[in-house]
Write a structure and sequence with these properties.
The structure is a single chain. The protein is α+β, with helices and mostly antiparallel strands. It has a single domain (21-185), classed as OB fold (Dihydrolipoamide Acetyltransferase, E2P). The protein is 19% helix and 37% strand. The protein contains 3 helices and 10 strands; from the N terminus they run ααββββββββββα. The protein has helices spanning 2-15, 25-31, 172-185; strands spanning 34-47, 54-67, 75-81, 83-85, 88-90, 104-112, 119-123, 130-136, 142-146, 159-160. The chain is globular.
């Protein structure tokens, strides 16, 4: 009886390792209210009221809108779980990471808060809805790479050396064209 109890008590840990469903680019486009190129301009990390969680409020500046309500230079805020506070770091698995000034392609979902006029945003599909934008130092072309949360570019800069011209990393312009084609096609 005890052996069964221990096995059952560990089952949730086994099956919760990864709870996200793989989303296609069409899924990301369909499920997102807004798709933007933006960069974090400020952040505030704090402890929740019950002192159990660390959260970070990040303010973003919109550089370009592909879909949705924003125009260039608009700002929006995103409340994310995790962050660093008083020497304690909390990382959330499958959550995107953000660095000040880093340009990203973000698939956003608008949600209503407790107050009817308050809208807050989450990244559609978690880490799947954030693409880092990097400049190929060989030719200066911007490429997008799906966020891997713990991956850092060399020297912590958004410049990478693309290993091959036949790579899996589309240029930013190719990705924007692909997104616009899927938006005009409509939901599947």
């Amino acid at each position: 009886m005890n052996k069964c109890f221990y096995l059952i008590s560990f089952l949730p840990l086994i099956f919760t390792h990864s709870q996200s469903v793989e989303l296609s680019l069409q899924d990301l486009c369909d499920e997102s209210s807004d798709i933007v190129i933006a960069k974090p301009v400020s952040s505030n990390t704090f402890q929740s009221e019950n002192y159990k969680h660390i959260r970070t409020n990040i303010k973003f500046k919109v550089i370009e809108t592909i879909k949705g309500r924003f125009v260039a230079d608009d700002n929006f805020e995103m409340l994310v779980y995790g962050g660093e506070l008083n020497g304690i770091t909390k990382i959330v698995v499958d959550a995107p990471s953000y660095r000040m000034g880093e340009e990203s392609l973000l698939f956003l979902r608008a949600n209503r808060g407790k107050e009817i006029l308050r809208i807050f945003f989450t990244v559609t599909g978690g880490i799947q809805g954030k693409y880092n934008i990097y400049v190929d130092k060989n030719d200066g072309v911007k490429h997008v790479v799906r966020d891997q949360s713990d991956w850092q570019s060399p020297d912590n800069k958004n410049v990478i050396e693309i290993q091959s011209k036949k790579n899996d990393q589309p240029t930013l312009n190719e990705m924007k064209r692909s997104i616009k084609a899927r938006i005009s096609k409509g939901p599947k």
